[in-house]
Structures are given as C-alpha cells and as structure tokens.
Amino acid sequence: MLSFEEIQKHLQSAKMISCVMARGHADAVVQALYNQKHVLGIDYATGRNQSTQMGTKDWQEVDMITAIVAPEYADEIFYEMYHLAKVSETEGGIIFQANLGFSTNYELPELTELVEQEVTLEKDLPKEP
C-alpha cells in the first residue's frame, strides 16, 4: 500500500466551477477553455429542467459544465465561463465554484519518451544468429 507521502506526489489543490446554462451555449465555453493549461479537466452534459411560468409547467433543455481549475486562475475562469455561458442573459442559468480538497492529475506520457524507452529495450535484446 502506498504511503500518504507517495500519494501526495500525484495530488494538487484545485477548484471546481459548475455552470448550468441554456441549451446551445456549452460548445463555446468548452472550446474556449479546452486548450488553457490551468484548466485541469472539463466535464460536459445535457439535461432537462422544469420551470413554472404563470401557472404552467414547462421543460427546458440545459447544458451543464464542470471545470476543474488551478486555484490561482479560478476567478478568471469563473468570469470567462459566466460571460460565455450568457448566465445573466438567459433564464435559469446558475454558476458556482467550490474548493476541492485535492485533485489527481491524469496525463498521458509523452510519446517521444515511450519511443526512446522502446528503442533502449530493443538494444538490450539478444541478437539472433
């Protein structure tokens, strides 16, 4: 079993920003945040929300995004998501952020590192006569 010190090497502090918005606005938000290095992860889903207006019930389609971000950039990302999702312009939108205790960083190894390791392993193989 791994010690807490070994586990801590893979953990980082983070903030979670969640946003529920009118259907159709999430694509712009995801595209804007996708390549930013301080955004550690993005989850996107759709759902339905029931609202009551003037005595009648109505179902609305909504987009939901959860972004995990580095704490020092949380306010900047929150502001960007708020405007891209048009939370103030559409009914039923909500955005909030919360502290996460820790987040794990999932990264794939660099392809060049794997190729170099494979080449090294091939050199160590016995030569065929």
Précis, in short:
This protein is an alpha+beta fold and 129 residues long.
Provide keyphrases for this structure:
4 strands, 129 residues, 30% helix, Alpha-Beta Plaits
Give a written overview of the molecule:
The chain has helices at 4-8, 26-34, 74-84, 111-124; strands at residues 11-22, 39-53, 56-69, 94-104. The chain has 129 residues and is α+β, with helices and mostly antiparallel strands. The chain has a single domain, classed as 2-Layer Sandwich (Alpha-Beta Plaits). The protein is elongated. The model has no long low-confidence stretch (mean pLDDT 79).
Number of strands: 4
**Which strand order does the major sheet show?**
2-3-1-4
SS element count, helices: 4
Oligomeric state as shown = single chain
For the biggest sheet, the summary is: 4 strands, antiparallel
Here the CATH topology equals: Alpha-Beta Plaits
In total, the number of domains comes to: 1
